[in-house]
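Q: Got a minute? One more chain.
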Amino acid sequence: MRTTKAARLLAAGTALTALTLLSACSQGSQHHRNEALASKAPAQPGGGKRQVNVLPGMPPVENPKDLYSADRPNQLSPVVKDFPSRVYVPNTNSNTVTVIDPETYKVIDTIPVGHQPQHVVPSWDLKTLWVNNDLGDSLTPIDPRTGKAGKPVAVHDPYNLYFTPDGKYAVVMASRDRQLVFRDAHTMKVVKAVPVSCYGVNHADFSPDGRYFIVSCEFSGEILKVDTAQMKVVRQERLPYAGAMPQDVKISPDGKLFYIADMAANGVWILDGDKFTRPHLLYTGRGAHGLYISRDSRVMYISNRGEGTISLFDFAENRLVKKWHLPGGGSPDMGGVSTDGTVLWLSGRYNAEVYAIDTRTGKELARIRVGSGPHGLAVYPQPGRYSLGHTGIFR
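A: Always. Here it is, folded:
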């Protein structure tokens, strides 16, 4: 009897253990099935970790930890993948756009445009390049597929041009008119003209969610915070430097900070855009002017126009790590990074030339003669899903 009872107890224990193991295996299998399903599901913006509540109509943020994740080397949109690679240089004093073949470093065309062209700006949908003829009160469209210019569109005082992240509106930086002019992104008809009390509105960049943008005012040393949907200036501050002349604006890859080049303060202001608190200055070099992000989002190139140098700011280390000197000097101004990320192109504002710089070594690859007063140079096409304007701010 004792043996039979013991056997029954042993059998019961064995069964219980088996049920426990079966349950655990079942849960484990379900866990693996869930993982497998998750891996097959469509990727969520930000890897499913965190989604950004973006401006209605704006494309989702791919990766909130890196706003430039769509700008990787050669990651061209289907819209532009067949466009020939070119460098478009607006010559402010010559009223022309010089076209350079980046493979040969040769000038292949010179396009007559309107009076005082300042920047060449890719449209939000990537299909058109707009030449900003500031004193000509017009925009000249260039078809990047053919390189041919179209009929100019009447637009008053277009010093610079941006696009709202939803693709609805162009935002004209009307510097002389002291206005931010929201226009239909396709027809360029005025939707709303926003007066500003500062002087010299010129450059901007948008928050990660697209709901506001930061604008620099060159001639009064001020910065603005503008509500995108309301088309309204919501904050305005003077930079804490006598005679400040803020220029280019770029947001950090993680979207937490804005960087504002200052030609008079000889450095870059670092601003918390959400809080809009007092920024602090990082000295980079005389005449800090243009800001460009590397294709791996690790480095920002800062052109110091007054001393012929380019400073490199490392985002992870939060410091300047290198400075490249143009041989024989120069006046590096505006530009962009090549499709593959290996060449930084910059206009030489006061030297009627363009510089091609190796991003791995800082070596000058070419110095190309162009027209007088080269300014907002655009490298095109570039990686990215859509353009926010200027010489190419892509997301």
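A: The helical segments are 2-40.
Q: Perfect, thanks.
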